[in-house]
Amino acid sequence: MNSLTVAIYPHNLLEKRMTLLTTPRCRLTSSRRPEISRSTVARNAFTLVELLVVIAIIGVLVGLLLPAVQSAREAARRMQCSNNMKQIGLGLHVYHDTFRVFPYGWDQRGMTWSGHILPQIEQSALYQTLIFQESGLGNWGADDGPNEEACETVIPTYRCPSMALPLHMDYNGIPQRVPGSYRGVAGTLATSDDTSTALPDTISMESLDQDGIFYACSKTKFRDILDGTSNTIMVGESYNNPKFVKDGQGMDYWYIGAPQTDPCRCDGGTGGTEFSEVAGVTITPVNAVIRAPLMSGHLMELSFGSYHIGGAHFLRCDGSVSFLTESLAEDVYDALGSRNGGEIIEEL
């Protein structure tokens, strides 16, 4: 019996070993490892859906931030525009302190108020190049003349940063003429550049009898501003757009010199045209070019306005600058344009 047992035992042992060798390794332990699914495999890139979601989120954020950025930039441009007008106001005050009178709006040689205050706004070198005569190189249309070159010189003080126009334009015989943003206030009476197109019972810009500060051959002094310097405006912004023409009148505004005003006469006679290039009136509403499309072009070009939303900057005779809105009452706006109308302005 013992010998039989010894003989069988090795055989059973061999069988067990063979069984162990042929059994899968994972079955050797009682705790089985979980199978790994494809969804839990680590990925090194976005899926198309995830990428589209990210792009959509970025687009929404940009859409929310862009108006705020544009608004901040426009606020900065408005501040710079206001500073420009303050510099102009300071220049006009210094001029008056020196000569005891404000410069005329324009004269028979085509010279304008903005040209006369060049030394007072740190442009003395440019002023010294001007020739004050009607003929020869003194003519604003003389090719390569110093006066023409002055009109082709960019003066940042005379340009609102919000104005959407190129620095130079070929206009009225001046190849590289520089458009301006600010014009003098001639008053409240004129309804056209020329007497022939003025409204009935009104005057034109040819007349020497205006109630503003800057007009043909004007000699306005502080003592003439009977309504008070804080209640009278002397310079205003203008919506300059030479390409917009209505009734044959372009909405074009410039500085230093105006060739078409040359035939102007200071003896009360008529002559010249396009005085609206350097001065305007308050008989028309602010931004009439945009808000009053049915208005006559002869009257529209005399209006003030700006590329800012809702109104325009104006320089008062006391040197302060105000932003007058489009909703300002017409009688108040009209009163601000006259120097001696006797109106009482309660509030703006």
UniProtKB/TrEMBL annotation:
Q: What does the UniProt keyword field contain?
A: Membrane, Transmembrane, Transmembrane helix
- Classification via Pfam families: N_methyl (PF07963), SBP_bac_10 (PF07596)
Q: What domain of life does the UniProt record list for this protein's source?
A: Bacteria
Q: Transmembrane segments in this chain: where?
A: 45-69
Question: Where does the record place the DUF1559 domain?
Answer: 70-329
Q: What is this protein called?
A: DUF1559 domain-containing protein
Record carries keyword Magnesium: no
